[in-house]
């Protein structure tokens, strides 16, 4: 019944699904932020002064 009403008003999904997605996305961002913070603190305590983020060029061409 819900799907029928949604298609009648040309909505791809319900507000309930949208709210669940927003909640999931917020929780995921929190987990990622916490993990990154812990890694940076760990590296700082180990004496690392420079952290490079990204994909190094030509890494896929190196063997090994």
From TrEMBL:
Name used for this protein in its record: Uncharacterized protein
